[in-house]
Inverse folding.
């Protein structure tokens, strides 16, 4: 046994199972049975600032309410939080709470957007051959059959279409409609190179059992498609649905069974970013899925004050593995509006992976990735071509995705030192810093490629 081993190293095996929701004044008389009902959870979700005040009553003060209101005037997302998540927030210290930070923004913690952030930072719309489908990687597509979710995450990379229109952002959202999916299905039938389909949105939890079945049946019927991934944050924020919505679970399990009979994979990709989200409810949900032979993988987002410490990320990784969720990805936060306060530097991700690797079995170590802006795709955090840490500029290539193109990711400006921040405030200095970073990678970059990069960056500056 390791001489440094202590019982504290086993904390990931403990799962919260108290009646934590009873600390919320409006829910102090809610029974465990009622709290466990996914219908009750959905019906009582927090959707307005008035709901926050109504359920917390004396546990929230007017200054915090004003801070939230100010944030909602500039944030790209409305609020929608399940009672499960809302109850897990430490309302005695809400400003520092990791769950509050993910789902309920406050203006006092927000920063001005980075000058090169974009609503569609990953170019999902640009790389879309037909409506609701993104085809970037040779054999994989992203299918977005709806734009609704059981919760709205403040850090959502698709806030351009999810979370409803706000004071600051008008959006074109859509619900599930099988007729509108047919062009996507037909595209998949015609493109035999595609083997992998991610069914996301929005959130697969918001697809009815009939739609879960319909999508699965259509995709499994295409001979060359071998892998389906239903993407949902639901296991993290509404585990009760796995335990009490038999129609939804059975519809998924039937598609899972059909896939297995055809020699095809049907899995779930979920999204825990903090160990605080994980309780006995989560463990019970996973026991049901694991018992049915379902593979579940996790994709977390690296966030300031949420999981950007070695202890927390290691704890999250071990806890996920212990309840049979494979830690798959940790994303460096995308450069989307309204999220600057949640972003970390690329270097933080590199250092975290260095420390998490070796803390448990290799197959349970998540891959830390930067999803290169403008459609470069997921790149390992250490695979950059050049990284100017002083000015927060990294340059990337994705040969199998976009040939010899270059992609740029930028660290949040408030994390740079004062001298670097002054350079960023000067437009000429900013352009020169970026050009120097590009030249370090490709000294003979063509005029065409240089213009392409400039247009991408101008898109960020001109978006406002």
């Amino acid at each position: 046994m390791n001489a440094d081993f202590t019982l504290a190293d086993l904390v990931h095996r403990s799962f919260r199972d108290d009646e934590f929701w009873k600390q919320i004044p409006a829910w102090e008389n809610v029974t465990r049975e009622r709290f466990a009902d996914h219908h009750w959870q959905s019906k009582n979700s927090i959707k307005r600032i008035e709901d926050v005040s109504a359920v917390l009553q004396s546990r929230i003060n007017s200054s915090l309410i004003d801070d939230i209101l100010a944030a909602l005037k500039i944030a790209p997302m409305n609020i929608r939080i399940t009672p499960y998540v809302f109850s897990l927030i430490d309302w005695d210290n809400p400003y520092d709470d990791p769950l509050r930070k993910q789902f309920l923004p406050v203006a006092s913690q927000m920063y001005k957007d980075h000058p090169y952030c974009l609503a569609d930072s990953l170019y999902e719309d640009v790389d879309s051959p037909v409506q609701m489908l993104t085809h970037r990687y040779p054999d994989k597509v992203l299918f977005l059959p709806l734009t609704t979710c059981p919760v709205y995450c403040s850090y959502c990379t698709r806030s351009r279409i999810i979370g409803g229109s706000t004071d600051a952002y008008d959006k074109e959202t859509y619900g599930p409609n099988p007729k509108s999916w047919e062009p996507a299905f037909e595209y998949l039938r015609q493109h035999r190179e595609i083997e992998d389909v991610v069914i996301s949105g929005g959130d697969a939890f918001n697809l009815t059992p009939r739609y879960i079945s319909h999508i699965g049946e259509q995709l499994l019927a295409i001979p060359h498609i071998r892998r389906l991934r239903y993407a949902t944050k639901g296991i993290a924020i509404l585990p009760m649905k796995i335990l009490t919505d038999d129609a939804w679970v059975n519809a998924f399990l039937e598609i899972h069974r059909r896939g297995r009979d055809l020699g095809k994979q049907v899995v779930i990709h979920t999204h825990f970013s903090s160990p605080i989200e994980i309780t006995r409810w989560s463990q019970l949900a996973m026991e049901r899925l694991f018992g049915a032979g379902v593979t579940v993988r996790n994709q977390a987002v690296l966030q300031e004050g949420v999981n950007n410490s070695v202890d927390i990320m290691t704890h999250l990784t071990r806890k996920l593995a212990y309840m049979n969720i494979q830690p798959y990805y940790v994303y460096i936060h995308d450069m989307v509006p309204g999220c600057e306060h949640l972003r970390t530097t690329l270097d933080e991700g590199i250092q975290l992976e260095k420390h998490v690797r070796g803390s448990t079995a290799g197959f349970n170590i998540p891959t830390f990735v930067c999803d290169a802006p403008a459609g470069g795709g997921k790149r390992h955090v250490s695979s950059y071509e050049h990284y100017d840490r002083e000015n927060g500029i990294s340059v990337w290539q994705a040969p199998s995705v976009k040939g010899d193109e270059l992609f740029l990711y930028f660290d949040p400006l408030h994390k740079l030192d004062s001298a670097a921040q002054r350079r960023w405030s000067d437009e000429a200095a900013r352009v020169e810093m970026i050009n120097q970073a590009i030249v370090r990678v490709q000294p003979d970059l063509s005029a065409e490629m240089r213009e392409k990069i400039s247009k991408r960056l101008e898109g960020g500056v001109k978006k406002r």
